[in-house]
Design a protein that fits this description.
This protein is α/β, with parallel strands linked by helices. It has two domains: 296 residues, Glycosidases (TIM Barrel, Alpha-Beta Barrel), CATH 3.20.20.80; 89 residues, Galactose-binding domain-like (Jelly Rolls). The protein is built from eight helices and 17 strands. An eight-stranded parallel sheet has the order 5-4-3-2-1-10-9-6. Strands 11, 12, 13, 14, 15, 16 and 17 form a seven-stranded antiparallel sheet that branches. Strands 7-8 form a two-stranded antiparallel ribbon. A hairpin with a 2-residue loop joins β12 and β13. The chain is globular and about 70 Å long. The two termini are 44 Å apart. The chain binds beta-L-fucopyranose (FUL). The site of beta-L-fucopyranose has 5 residues, from loops. Beta-L-fucopyranose binds next to loops.
Length: 418
């Protein structure tokens, strides 16, 4: 068993835990999830676009980074690129002088959160797409513009949709990132440093392994990555607050309960959560979505209130957690020391000889919701060579809180939307 260690940038990224995804572009105005590159650029005309409110909403929900679709599969560019006319420059918005990427980058910098960009490899507008060498040039130029024009980026999102069977010149593409944004995480393709969790429901499942053999467990497999045995690639769980990634008038935000279930099964399992908030045709996040986010954040805070920190004494095969006095709680949070890699493969917690839980990985942060119990000491039995906890705490601020569930029958859209 290998114990590949994270780079400092990977660890920092994992500790950010939660980011907001922004899907915004020509699709917003066409009412589509995927458009085919023929929707006129003149349709892009947000009436009240205010990137500062996007970032504020993200921050208020607890997000520590934001990823914007600079270009989706339709090829429409949210910045004034020199590579194509199919961009904000050909739109009436800000009289063709606007730059959404700039406004978002400035807002992120002002409000102190990290910025990441999504640049779809699949491009349904570019004339040169059918000529792989010419398109690699075009794509490298777009990526260079984004990597050099907008300050530090913390993540580049390379989406695999539409690219099955297509070989891009990943060595060249990744070299651009390495040269200009060496600390940025690379999502999913090329030479990834983080991976897709494998579904669009925002859900990880136990065990959440950071060292894996492959990047994509399902449909968007990248054959060119060259990854085989054992790479440290922590997962990111992407999901939209609505059904669609882009805004549609008849769509609605998920319930607080659904969002809570997602939180426990992503951040609470040691994976990052990337929650999409689609701005509407005004260029604003709909009020009902902002209100839902506030309720969700308040409920998370309520559940994770009344924290009592335990002292942690690691020993061979486990750890003893001691509280200053007997404490009543229904949440237990454990943090693994990841500096020498992810080592804990299983952990079992007991109190006074009674078993409380039996689960697999711990990782960056594992949150267990339990029936309320009072204890002054807990014993954690750990499997996995040299696994150590760095901290442990319990929360008892909402002892009556129920276990949230994903609504029955809910399934994220899976088919390619046309
Ligand atoms: C998918 C895309 O096809 C969707 O439109 C969306 O961008 C999602 C996050 O990734 O692969």
């Amino acid at each position: 068993m290998t114990h590949l260690v994270p780079t400092p940038a990977q660890l920092r990224w994992q500790q950010l835990e939660f980011g907001v995804f922004i899907h915004f572009g020509i699709n917003t105005f066409a009412g589509k999830e995927w458009s085919d590159g023929t929707v006129p650029a003149s349709d892009f005309n947000p009436t009240e676009l205010d990137a500062g409110t996007w970032v504020r909403t993200a921050k208020e929900a607890g997000a520590r980074y934001l990823i914007l679709t600079a270009k989706h599969h339709d090829g429409f560019c949210l910045w004034p690129t020199a590579t194509t006319d199919y961009s904000v420059t050909s739109s009436p918005w800000r009289a063709g002088e606007g730059d959404v990427v700039r406004e978002v980058a400035d807002a992120c910098a002002e409000q102190g959160i990290g910025l990441g960009l999504y640049l779809s490899p699949w491009d349904r507008n570019a004339d040169c797409y059918g000529d792989p060498a010419a398109y690699d040039d075009f794509y490298v130029q777009q990526l260079t513009e984004l990597c050099t024009g907008y300050g530090p980026l913390m993540e580049l999102w390379f989406d695999g949709a539409g690219s099955v069977g297509r070989e891009y010149d990943w060595a060249r593409i990744i070299a651009v990132v390495k040269e200009h944004q060496p600390h940025a995480m690379i999502f999913n393709m090329g030479q990834p440093t983080i991976r897709w969790v494998g579904n669009e429901n925002g859900l990880a499942s136990d065990p959440v392994d950071y060292v894996v053999d492959r990047t994509s467990d399902t449909q968007y497999t990248d054959s060119s990555s060259g990854l085989h045995a054992g790479h440290y690639l922590p997962p990111e769980c992407d999901v939209s607050i609505r059904r669609g990634w882009f805004w549609h008038p008849d769509d609605e935000p998920k319930s607080v309960e659904h969002l809570l279930a997602i939180y426990y099964q992503s951040v609470g399992m040691g994976a990052n959560l990337l929650l999409n908030l689609p701005p509407d045709t005004r260029g604003l996040i709909p009020d009902e979505d902002s209100a839902r986010l506030k309720e969700w954040k308040a409920e998370r805070d309520r559940r994770l209130s009344g924290a009592v920190e335990a002292s942690v004494e690691n020993h061979d095969g486990g750890a003893t957690l001691r509280f200053p006095a007997p404490v009543t709680f229904n949440h237990l949070e454990l943090v693994e020391d990841l500096h020498s890699g992810q080592r804990i493969t299983r952990h079992m917690v007991s109190n006074d000889g009674a078993d409380l839980l039996d689960a697999m990985t711990v990782g960056n942060r594992r949150i267990h919701q339990l029936p309320a119990i009072t204890a002054s000491e807990l014993h954690v039995k750990v499997s996995g060579n040299g696994g150590r906890l760095v901290s442990a705490r319990v929360y008892g601020g909402a002892l009556e809180a129920g276990v949230p569930a994903i609504p029955e029958g809910y399934e994220a859209p899976t088919d390619a939307p046309e």
